[in-house]
Design brief:
Chains A, B, C, D, E, F: Keywords: Hydrolase, Metal-binding, Zinc. Chains A, B, C, D, E, F: Pfam families: Creatininase. Chains A, B, C, D, E, F: This is Creatininase family protein. Six copies of one chain form a homohexamer. Chain A has one domain: Rossmann fold. Chain A is built from ten helices and six strands. The first copy, chain A, has a four-stranded parallel sheet with strand order 2-1-3-4, sandwiched between helices. In chain A, strand 5 and strand 6 form a beta hairpin. The first copy, chain A, is globular. The first copy, chain A, starts with 11 loop residues before the first helix and ends in a 14-residue tail after the last helix.
């Protein structure tokens, strides 16, 4: 159920009976010459809405801009700085718990958001307000991703290309797929040595590694592969929501301090 | 032009030549038994996208959740607290200026956001980073709004109902229009005395005034009226964008300190 | 009762029995060539002290500097930025509740403070620490203000001039009243079109509209009119304090969440 | 010159030619059964205004509430927490520099403010915005204070009593001077051992040491002594202002880094 | 060179000529029944000091407590929350640049610090204050680590055990190595399925996975292996410092915005 | 007991039974040409560890860098700005209370930290989380310090020199003691007049008073005197810890509000 399509009286049963919510988050950032800036938030939104539809759990509107300063040198990349992003998501989430929501999944499609969503989740977990977990679609189906393409890549590569070919084909510039590959980093293994200098990750921005912001070879991506990824990831997300729903809230809270001395004051 | 539909290389000309951006902001909050929680962000997004389409100026993705704690008692209302909202919008905007954007319109459809967007605009104005103005669609066409309906209302009333009837008719519960009126406050003049006790505005939450969160009588709202409002407001927004674009940046910056003594050290 | 004139043992009965406090707030900012920078805080203080005297409720010292960056281009205008102002007032108020105060009126005479005081009031209301309302003197007697003068004005105009003529006549430069009018904006209706460009409020600073910072025609202001305003506003404030005092604290707290399902877990 | 009594055009010469300002700060806190809560801010204000009058330098309105949590257990003590106090004073001061003020004296009469004003002064000094110093009246005339009374005391004692007897005699409860002494700590040397446990200052609140909040014996305080203190302190403040005014601004800025190697890159 | 052992005049040449600094950071947190809470900060300090000794670059004192809330359920684990940790490290680093340091290595031995040090590094990089990189010793010698032991583990396992056997053998409880293994998680592959529920990392605290806080089998760790690790990691760090030192500062700064249009205004 | 040397299971009894902790804090800052930058943190650590050893109370790792901007002009001085320092120490302390610690001594050897540690202690005291006191070693043995040397001094003087001669004699440049005296301020009484201009402390940085950063004459300092100081201060600290341990926690909490009226609602 997409919350924003409903009127408040229609939500009464949900507020009375349910406690799960899905929050899609992405980014608005360069994805090479072949994919739109919307790529990440489109993927997150599509997956979150579909899983909410199938399960009946509540899905919120999408947070479209995330933590993407590492792509800023490419035209149009938008971003919010990490402290403001975390605090916005925290306030957004805390306030949602006013309606009885106490377990949430951040359906995320942007790697730059991961650590910040985990940090927000930890804040809520430590003070026992809610149990929120970050879920990155491609982490849920690693084998399928591995099999997808010869030269995968974390950004603008075949997995994201295929997903957009499936979700929003009109936004893929099919005639630029070869350019995307040729102007970027086709083979990730080629850059690891440059990026890690004696063990330190020395780059801060994508532009340092890729002239066009692309990593991977997307020329073999297809809408059919995208559909397969979408179905598989949706299935994982549905199961995660059901798993969450089946837990007692107490199970999701922090374990207490190790008992230093059975029978003692602690 | 909707930024998120484009690839970064396609934005090169804009970055090189243009300096205007449109940012839609709304809320996700109760709008009575007849309108979806999405009402405000749908309106803001539709107007911003349309004006951007007509003028070619850049429109960003929508900020869907705003400052709505005063509606929180009604199921599903989402909100971000004011400090976090302001800081998020400020960071969002400052970072956008990295691409040469120096004048922005916050296309807003939620009264609760107004003062916060003005405050962010002032921060950017005072340090001369950018010139950002808040624009509320109904403020741009006050006479047309006045003529629209016998019993107008600021929230869930005929103007918002008509707009959604035009923009997203499938989301209007037409069979609940009379309920909306009867369960809420049909005539705003009836409540002013209750809300202002000897000059002080004593209420903090919508629920104190309206049992169903509605103000106004929307039974005479129609999609045709909505279209008229939409066209008129879009026209105003287009003119505002053109006005902004025609200014020299220096004209938009703060006037300096009054000269205390011509020829003095200041 | 003005708290600062008393010794702590003298306040014992109040702390034991009462829960109301009055906090005067103003600004120190330009008010044209005829009125002192103190105008707003003098008015707030005079009204707050008088109402406290008549009712016996406690009045705190005055916060003399407020949120006035929009007047900064005129010599001597002082201001505190909004986040720091809000946090100062919040801390000031929270700590006062340590003595059993749980309802407060911010007696305000500066428009630029209004939204910030409302925001602080909301913070205290939401966490149920106290019930604080903002009260702007001229909002309490709108009809009288309307009748006062042909050309009223929000800043430096006849209402403020008359008040200072009554409260602190020695501070009014009577010989500059005509200058004040002639160098400023006599008729507010003349500037609305300039200030609102297609619905957007495009100005950030008073100087953009008025060369001398004045709005309205104060040449017909008199101390007699000022006394009338003062008496009428004081009377409203007294009634507001009595109204507050007569409430149960629970009445002043937020209404709870709408019950989604009678008998359910919420 | 008291800034708030003037109109903005009258301040033109000052803005054009001068750079010194005096800011009075005190507290609103218990001062025993004989002195009003206003004690500290009355003293600060009287000294600041007098010195400004004599020298022509600009005096701002008073900040009446300071950092007094250590007196909170006594009825009516008001306070602002340290972070909010510092940030308010910092914003207040930074914004005043917009008018060309670059050197300030915080005329302070409350010990609890000292370290916070020094910290704010350091912030302004380090970024070279302004040179602000904290000045505590009794620190300027230590010998005179020492000679004043047999049993001096830092709070509610003879020095403050004499000052208020001079400045605002109607606010001194003369009939409670002996009570003040008898219910408090007459001889400071008697409590040092209690307060410092093996070198650690173990108390946080005045109440831990004094039942009525008083330290010292004020039974020999007189208005004449108060006048003498007032005159002597004012004289010191006048000299300080003249000293500040006579400095080049560069003299007041931080010394640079020690040159590590003459002729090197630094 | 360890900065704290020197007097300020002895540092003159360094300040005049050099720009590199090494900052060791660790944690004070449980490391099982066999290793001291100091484990991580001992390792970081030993490596940083050794590399500084060999190269002559400056090493600062160690930050001994880091971001370890995920170990808090085990006795004695200390931690600082992420926002305060980041801001402390940022201030620590910014102020160090006052002496001409503009490139730094955070020598880190605690996984929980990584993302926070990267975030601080990014802040300094984006505003071009300094170039700081996080370096985690075991990331610099992955192959050696892999070969070390049959059952490696990220926390309390053989690599950390061997390091402490080499650096501070008196702090290893050799008689508890088997207990460490048996009471914890010997084989990491066994827990991945529990920790990732349909792609979401569902645990927040180490205790959820390991009863004694240990991961890996350390029974085959030896001081000799530790020495080998120490030498190899030190060598990597030395090379990293030399690499940093050999860079022009401009090389280390962010690349600029992609030029949208050669010859345009940007 | 030094916490970081222990494994977590070894701390079980302490967590179960004890509630005292000792936290050493110093600085890393110039101490003249004869003493290392480490001076303050070495002293704090040595005293804290020794007292913990003698009593069995828990000692944490040392916070090596403190609030020292006033020494920054001398090579190598490190510092953290006050807000970040306070917040780091507060988080460090609050989290330690998770293990049942509710009373702490900040063993401090740097004057610049005092007020900030007191402020943190107050925060914890006011919300009743813990009772933390700042303890400065030389404040605990004032008579002994006074007798130590003819020309004492607060920084780099005989007391600190003697302490380092005892604790870490290899770090004292014995051949620079006369230089230290001759290049600095031998007699503190000579500078008071310069530092206090008509009662205001006008200096912000040590360099304004002392060319080499030294105050006092350390030529008569010896390791034997250092040992005497060390023993005496340790003895005081041990007694303080025992005193703290012997208190009921309720004794250490704030006294409540003075009862305004026995039998009343408060």
């Amino acid at each position: 159920m997409y919350i924003a399509d409903h009127t408040w009286p229609e939500l009464g049963d949900y507020v009375a009976e349910e406690s799960v919510a899905v929050v899609p988050l992405g980014s608005t950032e360069q994805h090479g010459p072949h994919l739109p800036l919307a790529t990440d938030h489109l993927i997150a939104e599509a997956l979150a809405r579909e899983a909410a539809e199938r399960t009946g759990f509540l899905c919120t509107p999408t947070i479209n801009v995330g933590v993407s300063p590492h792509h800023r040198q490419f035209h149009g990349t938008m971003w919010v700085d990490p402290p403001e992003f975390r605090d916005y998501v925290e306030s957004f989430t805390r306030n949602l718990t006013y309606h009885g929501i106490d377990r949430l999944v951040y359906v995320n499609a942007h790697g730059g958001n991961v650590q910040h969503l985990r940090e927000v989740g930890r804040r809520l977990h430590e003070d026992e307000t809610a149990y929120a977990v970050e879920w990155m679609w491609d982490e849920s189906i690693p084998d399928l991703i591995d099999d997808l393409s010869e030269f995968n890549g974390p950004h603008g590569g075949p997995k994201e290309t295929a997903m957009i070919q499936h979700i929003a084909p009109e936004l893929v510039r099919e005639d630029r797929l070869a350019d995307a590959r040729d102007g970027g980093v086709k083979d990730m293994s080629a850059i690891r040595d440059d990026n890690f200098v004696h063990g330190a990750r020395t780059f801060y921005d994508a532009r340092e590694n890729s002239d066009n912001g692309v990593f991977g070879d997307q020329t073999d991506a297809t809408a059919e592969k995208g559909e397969e990824l979408f179905e598989a990831a949706t299935e994982q997300l549905v199961k995660l929501l059901e798993w969450l729903d089946a837990r007692e809230f107490a199970e999701l809270l922090p374990a207490g301090h190790v008992d230093p001395q059975p029978g003692s004051r602690r």
